[in-house]
């Protein structure tokens, strides 16, 4: 008979970026969180990833951006879509750039953030099973220990144990092609690399050799066959493929990390079954074209965190937790589609090359270029709240307010009423929603209500309408 007094409110399986971010989001609301990670040590290889505009905004909202900037390198927000080289468009954001940063640094900083807020993280502790009932979830770990929690979230990657045990379907397409990716040193002059790369990329856009400084180059090269992704490639695999495609292995040596990825594309049929939820790669996988994977998972975590906390603390409105799937699954489906399209545009087939040439010309139009970059960077997302101005459902950029910057007011993960009229109130929800009366705020609307994830829940100046939206997103008023 399971204990009716759970040890934890939420157990998270997996301490990658998604799991660590979710743990931190939950701790902002004093949720008792345990993260189980099967690996004893964090990933040792230094893989550079890109944080896109929307993820940078979220990091700014939680006070993490300055720490990340210390370890990353900014570059223009351009050239993401199918690696088509066009200038960066003008984007509606104070953080309109890409931040190249080592993935282990992202994970470490997010872990430190979560631990600093009070989350527990247990490494070398793999989830092996679970059973859920009306009151909670009993989780089994590899050493035979049983833990009791109110909710379980699988953030345990594309081969998610949680998803498989939950019996959630993961339909999509298996990998048809495979690509090798790694960072290593080379033994030939930059001029030779540039000439060979330019020649090959006339017909194969999946091939690239990019210098990262200090003698390190990132090499991306099509593999000969599709193999078991669980087995990492060897340096000899890279040498063999380089000789096949370029006629030389460029004297590659001293790899920092080596990996392979396919173009498998899958989306979980459900993000929630009872008290068990999925996030990040456990819910969706796709090729890394456009660099959206880590960003998509972190954004899942920020969407889910406050909703799950509301459920734990008992103030969640009906169906609030279900909006997590309702909002995030369509976003993932769109990412899967745009990565499918990008992979086709990388093909060496004549038809695909013709479409790529056409799209390259179309991207000379600023509207087209901006549309595609906004899609990749996730600042085009508008959740369907059913009604309202176009701003409703969208994230709000970091505008100036009397106290400085808007995002600085969102660090505690609460809602925010931004009121330029001085007549509005969120009094009955003051334990969940902050109120800033500021006629100087850089807005062209009289007032708006922000959810904890920075998306606009309401725009206007009518108190009765506002009360309705407050109740919809933040439950019944107190007092």
From TrEMBL:
Cofactor(s) needed: FAD
Keyword terms: FAD, Flavoprotein, Monooxygenase, Oxidoreductase
Sequence ranges assigned to domain FAD-binding in this UniProt record: 8-339
GO molecular-function terms, A-Z: monooxygenase activity
SUPFAM superfamilies the record matches: FAD/NAD(P)-binding domain (SSF51905)
Superkingdom in the source lineage: Bacteria
Pfam families: FAD_binding_3, Rng_hyd_C
Protein name, as recorded: Rifampin monooxygenase
Organism: Hamadaea flava
